[in-house]
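Local shape tokens:
==================
===
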Amino acid sequence: MNTMLAAVLHDFDDLRLEQVPRPRAEGIGEVVVKIAACGFCATDYKAIRGLRRNVTFPFIPGHEPSGVVTEVGPGVTRFRVGDPVIVAPSGFCGHCRNCRLGRTHYCDQAWTTGGDGPDDVRPGAFAEYMKTEQCSLYHKPPEVSYAAAALTEPLSGAWKGVIRASELRLGEDVVIIGVGGIGLLCAMVARAAGAGRVVAIDPSPFARRHALACGATHGVDPVVADPYEQVYDIMPNGPDLVVEAAGPIHAVELMVRLRRRGTRWNVFGITTHETFELDGGLTHFLEGRMDASFGTNPEAMIHAIDLMTHRLVDPERIITHRLTLSEIDEAVEIMAGGDRNKVLVCPTECD
């Protein structure tokens, strides 16, 4: 067949299921992947609803896929038709200064499939097939399901933020503000890395229950009492690391409040251009360290695959809903609600 089913965004709040031309691997290094599963990220939802505006129409969202190679273009040497694969959402040139320094997510010529960030945005994975390039592919280990494999990118982001950027050490106490999908993965990575106490702060009882089931040692409701006092009741010496994985500016402000001397803090969840205040003198004398993390890179992807292969982290535990591509409208509505965590979209049935 020369066409495929895809969810195409024609305008904000105008997502349509329709037949579109099936991609072909005609260029050097190009690969076509038959999609098995694709995570529904909050950035996808924001694009669909118009909560982020850096979208060019028409647009096929979806940037957390796994699948099977169905076609390879000239120059593809590491993948063959039939290979089960994990797909990173971004690509890079490999030749610019940033790429050669290992910072491929800073690539001067970066592109993305179904996501945002670079100017070059290509059709994503809310479709039966997607075209990408071999630099964005990883072989899926047989012991990792397609559902888990689809969450490699957010898991790699959690590893990159908690381990690479913030350098979590064995036995340290961690606070995670916001335990949606990425916050849960941060908690799971922290526990796998030997964290001591892991406190999950979230106003949602559903999210807190899920966090405790996924390895958090304590849940804190910031509505019923001052979260600062609750955290310091649990951790009298204060947190070693605070990860903001929520998004709203008040989560960043809470992170700033929670610091004690030596606390490291990671601005992870907020992606909107909002401001917060810092007391310069206090920040100086606290001698803490602020980090941030966005996107992923090959190092983080490899470590995420290792975490799954060695059964240290199972990202399937954060999946609450699995829907077919034909149910994409229902998936959008579930994303708008509170009692959900990771939503998975599959062309037919998810494994």
Residues 3-150+314-346 form a domain with the Quinone Oxidoreductase; Chain A, domain 1 fold (CATH 3.90.180.10). The mean pLDDT is 95. The longest helix spans residues 152-165.
